Hints:
The protein is 67% helix and 7% strand. By secondary structure, it is an alpha+beta fold. The protein has four domains: 3-19 and 38-242, no CATH class; 262-533, no CATH class; 575-718, no CATH class; 723-802, Alpha-Beta Plaits.
Amino acid sequence: MNSKFTRIIIILLCFVFFTVSTSGQTKSEGNVKTDSAKVKTKGFMARMQDFAKKSARESIEDFKSDKVAMVQLEVINQIRLTTQDAKGYLKTITDTLALKRKLKKLREDYLIAAEGVLINRGTTQTYRNLASTKRVLNALTLDAKRSKSSLDITQKELASFHYRIDSLSTAPELFVFPKDSAQTMDYVRTLAAVAIDAAPVDSLLKSTNSKVQKLLYNYNIIISEFQNAVEQVEGFERQMANETVARELPNIWQKQLHFRPFKDIVSFSLTKNMLTLKFYAVNNAGKLCLIIFLALCSYIYLNALRAIYVEKGLLTKEMNGQLAIRYPALSAVLIVLSLFQFLLLSPPFTLRFIIWIISCLCLTIVFKNFNTPYWMKVWLLMVVFFVFASAGNLLLQASRPERWYMLTLSLIGAVAGIIILRQKRNVELREKWIAYSILFMVCVEGLSIILNIYGRFNLAKTLFLVGFQNVIIAILFLWVVRLINEGLLLAFEVYTVQDRKLFYVNFGKVGGKAPSLLYALLVLGWVLLLGHNFPLFEFLSKPVTEFMSAKRTLGNYSFSINGILLFFIVMTISVILSKIVSFFTSDDHLISSKGTNENSRGLGSWVLLLRISILSIGLFLAVAAAGIPMERITIIIGALGVGIGFGLQTLVNNLVSGLIIAFEKPVNVGDIVDIDGQGGTMKSIGFRSSVISTWDGGDLVMPNGDLLNSHLMNWTLSGNRKRLSMEIGIAYDTDLQKCREIIYQILEDEDRVLKNPKPAVNFELFGDNAIALKIQLWTRHLKDNNPTRNDLIIAIKDAFDQNGIKIPFSQHEVYLHQAANPKSLDREK
Length: 829
């Protein structure tokens, strides 16, 4: 038992004992003993007070000791837990050796990037070399900053663990020892165990923190070097942009300046180009994966379109107007690479060259045997020119052999272009604008020849590439527009039901020619791709991009024009995709292609959910891209709540009903339904309303709330079966058993009549003119009811005629009674 509680009990027992002993004295003792009792009482009370004070002091000391013991226990537990956490964290932190190796690799890559610009500059700078160096340096800076950020976090965590262990180890309560020697020894042993466990961890934290600090110092230095190098390269680019037409080299016939060996130029150019491509691919892996995914989706669509044409026998051997589905995979790659290469912001020339070469190969195979042999040779010649010009553009430093190489190829290209134009075979061209691009090539290559001769190397090299590149891009884009137009035309020839409510393109107005908007976008893309080759392009476009991306404030809300445009672009794409999904899943060919609507039902049942998902994801991405704060969204939702309370109940009811229909699926697209006596087929299920194609040919638009609350008869849920009943009257003199056998035989021979459940032939009643016979049967499909009824009536009538069974018609016998002559009646009276 606790000592302080023992002392309290002793005091109470003594007080009780003294009270009993004094009260037991008899009154006969009188006043003689009174004084002695008082003396005893005073002495006892004094001793009791001393004892109480001593007990109080001892109790306070015990309380303090217990409090200190509790704090000690808590601190020791915290030290153990922190030590364990620190051990676990030390196992997970980034290996400093790996970071050292990465730092070494960054320096090696920096030397490769600086080659020819900051190191071994050579006679003159080239724009391609500056651009490649800048891209690599930016990538290296970004990579180094990522590692530095990781080291910053590691250092903070290490310092945090070290601080927590030190602060706990210096707690004053740890140095208060119990008075009991045995407890002191136990406590000292506990402290020793904790110290033995924590000391190595604390030392490891200090050493690791020291290593991390050294690495951070080195990373800060190298990041500073990279940033300074980028500033130097940008200074060179500004100087080159300001001196676009300045002379860099002597005239080509004059004595040339000193150049590096051509072999060294090729070697370091190849190394730097591969390094640039690697860093760009790593930093833009998401966009590249997106392009691959879009190409796969395009292939699936075009391949499905081709399968429909093959199934319906619409595919022609000449493939005129059907090139888009001739090779679905190649067409998909060509279209996606040509259109979505603009997702890649400022890609290196090596990547653009790979994209264009792949596109050229795809286009060559797609229109092989479609173009005339002459223009096919012209196309292949332009591809060869482009490949050789691009190979020259991959060289990152100027050299005398390159100048003669450019001069020779430009001269051959210009002469070839002139010969092609003088042939005047433009009538054979599928796209007339190709002739204009060849004329542009002749002019640009001629200007490149002049500039090259008179020492304007960088501008001559840029024009040398642009001349051939413009022809390739123009032809690729023109054919991409043609293939897109063909793909849409082919789709709308198969998907014949164009619903303005879902998605509509008036091809009767557009015709076989692509819309002008596509050609306008083609010209814009052509200008952008060619403009990237000029040093001035970046500096002219930089103010525009800064203006578009600048943050602006309106009250408490900050925004940028890029964010607003991106919001509307993403939402527009989401809405268009949603409508396209509804359009292509609501067409009749999904039913007629297989003779059943099971495929359309399986697809159509998820259409609304798919549309909701597309719009929800689109809204989320649009909000995230625009940088709209979430608290603004809550304000909008609150405003919508007020609107719902005042006047949007019906709209919300229909929207919620649409969700219920999507999840519960009482009805799907393609189902045969009866709603309040109105029969038809479900054509689409939208957000607010659904469309039912009635048997009369009209489209019934019904709000989802009314659809959900109506008495809905869904024949498709029961397997598209409906019982067919027929009533026949036969004459009274008919052999009834023979009649039943004849009818059963007819039903047995009819393939559209189900054998299970078996058809029933029953005699119902004796009618006025005939015995009523009722036939009940099930057909394989609801749509077979009327044709089956028609054929059965014909078959039964023929069989009855052959077997002499009469089907009496309704008749009434009228008996006429002649009235008596009134005159004769009077004579009788």
